[in-house]
Amino acid sequence: MSPWVLHVDLDQFIAxxxxxxxxxLRGRPVIVGGRGDPTERAVVSTASYEAREFGVRSxxxxxxxxxxxxxxxxxxxxxPLYEAASQQVMDTLxxxxxxxxEVLGWDEAFVGVDTDDPEACARRIxxxxxAATDLHCSVGIGDxxxxxxxxxxxxxxxxVFRLTRDNWxxxxxxxxxxxxxxxxxxxxxxxxxxxxxxxxxxxxADPDRLAAEFGPSMGPYYGxxxxxxxxxxxxxxxxxxxxxxxxxxxxxxxSDPAEIATAIGSLAEQVVKDIAAEGRPxxxxxxxxxFAPFFTVARSRKLAEPTYDPGLxxxxxxxxxxxxxxxxxxRLLGVRAEMVPPEGGYDDQTRRTARDPRAAG
DNA sequence: TCTGGGGTCCTAGGACCC
DNA sequence: TCTGGGGTCCTAGGACCC
Length: 361
Fold this sequence. Notes:
The chain is α+β, with helices and mostly antiparallel strands.
């Protein structure tokens, strides 16, 4: 028996959940996003595999998606429905004998198991999830979290793939650094500037050079990513959130000061509901503004006293906005409340996030 | 083509103190 | 008159992920 990390990822999760209540749409291109209105400012949450064949991708503006695939069926996002389906999936994972489950999002989780046959474990998870929810998933098997996470991509859809120290370079060595979890286009470009193009290059890069470019924490972390080295400990300790925020993109840009004040007040009230449910008051207020056409600014301020008062939070956000505002119309407003940490701080009481650079490799 | 909403973490640089 | 080195706190900004 040896420890394995499994990464379970539901296939086209949101679209698949919608298809369960609309089976007549099966086989047709389906796009879920916004309020389901392609003329509105919104993006694609998930596209079915049929829609992906037309080039539709998550994060794409709905207007663009519809242009690429005019015959697609457009559906509005129904978060509570996906939340409920997600609960069923996670409960199924927790019911696996000996499994430790670390939830990463609605549609994915790490599962830690002790076994001689991780493939059999993976297949049983797929069968149990399908039986309980009618949803298909893919499973990545790894000897570290990052390897398990990346392995899943090679298993999709409905498959199982194993990625370990033994086949890491064979599978990943010649791929671009952006194939790694946590390396996006910006970091990829900066790495390329250092002559680091592939995963193999990154694995071989001098840690001191990486530290000089990215700092003492992130530099060596990227080096470890290149080797597939990360924590292998699956942790089911409940995660304690740091902050709650609300943001809204307005269909019509805001310019009237009274309208703006009302909008911020409403965001502050929603945020207070969330932090009150958490039981920890707001310590710091963050404001995010997107001016038209597409220019985003963020500001924040620490409060003199922690508070649950939406008036105070809203006024602070408004104050931060006034220091920025010069009559440009506003596309988006966001108010975020950073909560007072629990006694003893976060590190003592909560697990680290799965992608935390400090987590030991 | 026109870009959502929910988050997390790291780094740089200034202010301030000893 | 000009000036160090270390530490902490704070804000702004960048990057990434689902």
